[in-house]
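Weekly modeling sync, notes
Attendees: AB, CL, MP (scribe)

Item 1: holo prediction request
CL wants a bound-state model with magnesium ion before deciding which constructs to order. AB pointed out that an apo prediction alone won't tell us much about the pocket. Agreed to run with the ligand included and paste results into these notes for async review.

Input as submitted:
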Amino acid sequence: MDAEDTIIVMGNPGSGKSTILNQIVQTPIFRSGLSFDGTGVTKEIQSCRMKKMLLVDTPGLNDDNRNARIKASKEIEKLFKHLKNKNVKLFFVITLESGRLRPDDVLVIILINEILKFESSYSIIFNKLESSLIKEFSYNRSIAQYESDLIKTRSVFKIQCNKDMLDQDNYITHLDNKLMSFIANAPYCKVPSGIGNIRHHLFERDVNYLRSEIGKLESEINKIEKDTKKLKSNNK
Ligand SMILES: Nc1nc2c(ncn2[C@@H]2O[C@H](COP(=O)(O)OP(=O)(O)OP(=O)(O)O)[C@@H](O)[C@H]2O)c(=O)[nH]1
Ligand SMILES: [Mg+2]
């Protein structure tokens, strides 16, 4: 074990990465909060030392803004290049949508594991979970549909949604000791010496695909509206 644990949080914008780190430090060192311009709050790697831990915050990877997405990828690549051959602890912070994993979050896990050569162990923190899901939700059960052992992990922690925190900036609440012991017991991942590029364009393809599907739906709706108008005027 290294003298100092390097704790890296990763994930998509708004999942609560910076907020979690602020709870650990009990000070709003990492900027967190609502985004008003549709792009992530954390733009660059930010770190802070605390009690034999180096806490590292990263920008949300799949930002809606293409330039921010590219910048976030470059920042993360730079971080891992800097940490080459080191043992670090990697935490993906994820939120659910109607009790389901979001494909974007799964893609983040896959793309980061890809540059780490799929040899790493990592942890997942489910954040902002509805109380009904705290017991029921199982990561490995929901990941089963992806039919890949590469994205399985046993190191999972769930954080219940804190209603007081909703849309707050730099909010600090009491620190959960269970979170601290989860972090202390989380597996290490050895960063390889060669770090490739994050294939961030895969997010783009998804967005473009969605755009084209939305376009198709819009023209179908237009056609239905026209046909309905025609039918109505024929019936007059
Ligand atoms: N209700 C609730 N809101 C939360 C919780 N955790 C974080 N939030 C809110 O979610 C918003 C986004 O949190 P951040 O910590 O800035 O998210 P981030 O992952 O660092 O986002 P980027 O820096 O944009 O990548 C903030 O308004 C937080 O107050 C939680 O447990 N419950
Ligand atoms: Mg942040």
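Recorded for review: The mean pLDDT is 88.
Action items: CL to compare against the apo run; MP to circulate these notes.
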